[in-house]
Amino acid sequence: MYQYTSFDQQFIEQRAAQYRDQLQRHLAGQLSDTEFKPLRLQNGWYIQRHAPMLRIAVPYGEIASRQLRVLARIAREYDQPAPNLLRHAQGLQDALQAAQPGTLAAPPLRYGYGHLTTRTNVQFNWIPLEKSADVMDLLASVQMHGIQTSGNCIRNLNADALAGIAPDEIADPRPFAEILRQWSTLHPEFAYLPRKFKISLTGGVEDRAATHWYDVGLKLTRNDAGELGFVVSVGGGMGRTPIVSPVIRSFLPWQQMLNYLEAVLRVYNQYGRRDNVWKARIKVLVKSEGQRFTDAVEAEYAQILSEDGGRHTITDAELERVAASFVQPELQPANLPHSVDTDSTAYQRWLERNVRAHRLPQLRVVALSFKRPGLAPGDADAVVLDAVADLAERFSAGEARLTHEQNMVLPWVHASDLPALYEHARALGLARPNIGLLTDMIACPGGDFCALANARSIPIAEALAERYQDLDELWDLGEIDLHMSGCINSCGHHHSGHIGILGVDKDGKEWYQITLGGADGSALSGPAMPGKVVGPSFSAAEVPDVVEAILDCYRAERTDGETFIQTLRRTGLDPFKQAANAARHPAITTAPGAATPTDLAIA
């Protein structure tokens, strides 16, 4: 993992001190709510439906055990709402429930936990603003912060969760991601872009980083001469207008990564729309301008090289300096005793679903499933965060990784330690062998917490997890990506799910739009593409039955060995659409003005 220099550490400590001063002035009445808002947002502090929400960056997903322990402490000591606030928030939820008879029962609001997001951030939903500066100091002590997790700037850098360890890797993208992180942090020219800007990197043949769904995707490759560089795609994104990014450069020498990105961002800064928030993302500019956008970027890139002499050209020495932080850790097997029957079905299923090959033949990558019945996808309380820190120290050189599927992986596990690790993870509820299966669903916090959400995600996720607990049935269904968002902002990546669920507000009530056939670009899903809407929205109570009808259709239509997405691609949408709409409850009519495929068209 990258280790902060003294400059890095001084920077985030000074930033935490600046925030403490700003907070104190706000609490003293010297800064109004309006004046304080941009200051807190620049440090990752939002005000959500019930309370402040903190978003903490985990650059390219790498997290150390000492950092996990601090997150556990924050969950235990700070993510604790005052009793009157909790009663008020629960009252709002109960009122919403009462206003929609027949809807799914919602669980009580939870607190004292961190939430793993689809962009390798960690969020806390209940920290009192008065204690926020103390939390920033704690984070700074372990090289963490919330800088640029909000705002119209370059956000937290994402990368393949198997970076540096995948057998199919062309080169390790982490040093490049770290160089990008340092370059983009508080970059004065790109602090006020037309809209937020997200970058993802991968070095594998398989795209495990959903790069075509990002504003910029960087895929390491080699040209015919064997030289290392990037395939650059620009203009992807979800939200109201789902667009898969086109490739605008098939080979960019790695040395020119920063210069080329500067050209992309300058063109976006100059021509991106600022008059309409729904049309301000770079994807809309790329879609509308086409080749003219690429030509403008290439012209700006040429000008940067000619005028500045490529002052941001990455040298071999700079790459070696940063790459030195990503050397393979010293690895010794834990050799802990265990009582696991390694021939048991349960253990063999765990090996198949949760354990992946490593570039080093004696090692394995182990996924910890944060998709457990009774808990929201990606939620981790203080006990679990501390326990994962223990597992990382015992079995994985003190390191874990966050994934965009809202799970964690341990990247440095000796094959001989797998039975002991399984025993420990099973005791924590983290060894459920459902990675890549239906219940390994992605879901945002939705209307239970988010101020932007139109509908709740967590009750839907819990209803589906409850219905599909049987592992034999899950294994029969096979690999299925189910993604769920509580609003059109798509934090739950519903557009890229084989089955996508989108919460919509119709006349003050929660309804849900179903899409089918989305793909994130992984080997399982095929080339990235948005799903297609099956029809008008469904009520919350209908959604589990609709999903069941879709899965029953798959069972009826599939051939031997055919996955859900393969069957859908072969048969087309019609049989699934008919099955979904046949599952509507007779007593419930379609919401007036319910969304249709036309609503997703580019205006």
UniProtKB/TrEMBL annotation:
It comes from the Bacteria. PANTHER family: BLR3264 PROTEIN, FERREDOXIN--NITRITE REDUCTASE, CHLOROPLASTIC. It comes from Brachymonas denitrificans DSM 15123. InterPro entries: NIR_SIR_4Fe-4S, NiRdtase/SiRdtase_haem-b_fer, Nit/Sulf_reduc_fer-like_dom_sf, NO2/SO3_Rdtase_4Fe4S_dom, NO2/SO3_Rdtase_4Fe4S_sf. GO terms for molecular function: 4 iron, 4 sulfur cluster binding; heme binding; metal ion binding; oxidoreductase activity. Keywords: 4Fe-4S, Heme, Iron, Iron-sulfur, Metal-binding, Oxidoreductase. Residues 375-427 form the Nitrite/Sulfite reductase ferredoxin-like domain. Residues 150-300, 444-580 form the Nitrite/sulphite reductase 4Fe-4S domain. This is Sulfite reductase (NADPH) hemoprotein beta-component. Signal peptide: none annotated. Gene3D superfamilies: 3.90.480.20, Sulfite Reductase Hemoprotein, domain 1.
